[in-house]
Amino acid sequence: MSTSTIVGTVDEEKTPPAADRRRRRRAAHNVEASTHNRGPVWTAAGYVGMVLVLLVVAVPLFWILVTSFKERGDIYVRPAQWWPEPATGQNYSELTTRIPFSDYVRNSVIITAATSLAKIILGVLSAYALSLMRFPGRSIVFIVVIAALMVPNQITVISNYALVAQLGWRNTYQGIIIPLAGVAFGTFLMRNQFLNLPGEIIEAARLDGAGPMKLLWRVVMPMSWPTLVAFALITVVSEWNEYLWPFLMSDDESTATLPVGLTFLQNNDGVTNWGPVMAGTVLAMLPILVLFLFLQRQMIKGLTAGAVKS
Amino acid sequence: MATVYFDEATRRFSKEDAPAVDGITLDIADGEFLVLVGPSGCGKSTTLRMLAGLEPVDGGRILVDGHDQKGVRPRDRDIAMVFQSYALYPNMSAAQNMAFALDNAKVSRSETRQRVAEAAKILELEPLLDRKPGQMSGGQRQRVAMGRAIVRNPKVFCMDEPLSNLDAKLRVSTRSQIAGLQRRLGITTVYVTHDQVEAMTMGHRVAVLRDGKLQQVDTPERLYDHPVNTFVAAFIGSPAITLVESDVREGVARVHGVSVPLDRSVAGRAGEKVVVGLRPESWHVVETPARSGAGDSGTTALALNVELVESLGSESFVYGRPVGADDDADRVTVRLDKRTHLAVGDTVHVEPNRGEVHLFDAASGERIEA
Question: Which CATH code for domain A99-269?
Answer without folding.
Answer: 1.10.3720.10
